[in-house]
Amino acid sequence: MKGDKLIGLTVFYDTPHPEETGYYAAMYRVHWMGKSAAWGKWEYDDDDDGAGNDRDQIDMIELTIAPC
Fold it and tell me: Residue 47, Cα to own-chain centre: how many angstroms?
């Protein structure tokens, strides 16, 4: 959060029964508003401190669960 804006997001997925299903991770990306509105790159769980550009407000999120 920055003031009253959501500027970043971190998602984790805890795989239930990984010995039966294999491991899965949250795969997600965010879209931010502002002068340079854009979709960020895909993130897998917390591979590099989450999604967002740490400046502009997030307005959309895409999220899925993917095998690792």
Answer: 10
